[in-house]
Amino acid sequence: MEIRAPKLHNLVTITLNEFRGLDCEVAFLGLLLSWAPALEKLKINIPEGTSDQCAFRATKKLLALPRASTKARIIVT
Fold this sequence. Notes:
The protein has 77 residues and is α/β, with parallel strands linked by helices. It is 32% helix and 16% strand. It has one domain (13-76). The chain has helices at residues 23-35, 52-63, and strands at 13-16, 41-44, 73-76.
């Protein structure tokens, strides 16, 4: 099944809590990044107890994703 690409022209900020770096989470954020040309900030909150290695791998995946917005910053906390 193919997903149609909506344009989220008014989406400026995304905050995702309890991000664990699962492939489905990364794929979902990849779609949002590709659909939101006005996006300025994507804030990811990684839960306490997540290993540094897991957080690093997830962050690396997110930073490699293409973005519709040239101003989009990815902030991991």
